[in-house]
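Here is a protein:
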Amino acid sequence: MKSKKELRSAYRQLRKKLQPSEVESKSQAIKAQFLNWLEDKGHLQHFHLFFPIDQFNEVNTFYIKDSLEEMDKTLYTSQVNRGDTELETLKLPKDAAFFLDEWGIPVPQESIMVSSNKIEVVFVPLLAYDQFGNRVGFGKGFYDSYLSKLKPEVLKIGLSFYDPEEKIQPESHDVKLDLCITPEKVFTF
């Protein structure tokens, strides 16, 4: 079994090799898989999104954002608080304009800081995940900390260009995914 450090390095290299056109087509396929999954779940109204850091070839979640806005869903995102220790929840206005912060993360120009208590679904960034819902992120722990403070019934959905690893050794603070969506399939844990 590979360590989290080894997996982080391996998946960063894999993603680095992707062409921009591949990132876009795979991101659109992930959006299509998500919309299929969402079809019979009209009761879900409050979705928390991360936005892609282009230099890391992350899944382009703007496609999901646009689809959810068309369905009149309420959208949220996060930003790191001033103390650089935790994520704060921001409610996104419809058709928000974005700018890149110092880490290259798209941040809405206008947003309202709110409580996270209405969130029903969180899209979670990751580098790798396994067939049990364990994930490897970028190693800062922001999302595990954020997820641990949400209601237990909140759905945690990973988005990945790749299939799961066999097993990732979780740490005590890790929060498992409920689903992971790839261009080909929705994995349920």
User: Anything to note?
Assistant: The chain has a mean pLDDT of 92.
